[in-house]
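Subject: design request, 238 residues
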């Protein structure tokens, strides 16, 4: 066990992508780890298998040590922790600190639902990517989350305290009308970076109606960027 962190045998992460990725950490080759469980219910979630927190076994610190050894041989410089929602995991801070102590930059993906945890783990966070789902009023209907004050608080914490960050929005054309896009842009007003990414249909999406919706058109992404750009420092489509 690494002496620098754990107070249990287990970390916060239970699965990983076996190959390093170039798309999960800006400008760095990264290893991607998953946590289980989410407190949102997005009908278009691409990780539906991770939504339930069924208390399965997570990686031990010894396993993470072995992964770190492999990463160095494969030029990995960074670790991204995604979910589910990572801030639901009690061992998140210890896990992020573990990777940082091993010399990796650490990125955290979050839905912004737990600002107090977000703030707590910022010392071990090099980059935060927070999803903006919709206007605050629509969170209960669109993703099943009612504590929208938490979303506002997370945005403020990230804008004022994170080392580096992005806000990102998956654009669902039949939901995100102009009014919605403007409300989202105003929600993160002044932010360093807002990214619009396409909705992608898939047969395993949780809600049936999303499985057959078309992929977001590039022109719709470009329109969203044009609408939102005046409210933030940089706005792009990915
Ligand atoms: S917040 Fe992310 S992991 Fe959770 S349901 Fe939505 S898309 Fe899935």
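Subject: RE: design request

Done. Sequence follows.
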């Amino acid at each position: 066990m690494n002496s620098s962190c754990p107070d249990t045998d287990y970390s916060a992460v239970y699965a990983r992508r076996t190959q390093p990725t170039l798309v999960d950490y800006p400008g760095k080759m990264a290893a991607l780890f998953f946590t289980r469980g989410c407190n949102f219910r997005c009908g278009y979630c691409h990780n539906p298998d991770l939504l339930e927190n069924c208390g399965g076994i997570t990686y031990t610190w010894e396993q993470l040590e072995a992964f770190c050894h492999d990463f160095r041989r494969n030029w990995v410089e960074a670790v991204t922790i995604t979910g589910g929602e990572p801030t639901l995991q009690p061992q998140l801070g210890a896990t992020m600190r573990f990777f940082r102590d091993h010399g990796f930059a650490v990125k955290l993906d979050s839905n912004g639902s737990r600002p107090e945890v977000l703030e707590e783990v910022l010392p071990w966070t090099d980059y935060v990517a927070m999803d903006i789902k919709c206007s605050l009023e629509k969170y209960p209907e669109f993703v099943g989350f009612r504590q929208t004050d938490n979303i506002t608080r997370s945005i403020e914490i990230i804008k004022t305290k994170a080392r580096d960050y992005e806000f990102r929005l998956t654009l669902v054309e039949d939901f995100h009308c102009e009014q919605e896009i403007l409300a989202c842009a105003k929600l993160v007003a002044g932010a360093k970076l807002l990214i619009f990414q396409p909705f992608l249909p898939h047969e395993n999406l949780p809600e049936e109606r999303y499985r057959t919706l078309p992929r977001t058109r590039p022109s719709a992404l470009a329109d969203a960027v044009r609408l939102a750009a005046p409210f933030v420092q940089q706005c792009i489509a990915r």
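The beta strands are 15-16, 30-34, 78-82, 105-110, 127-131, 165-171, 194-198, 235-237.
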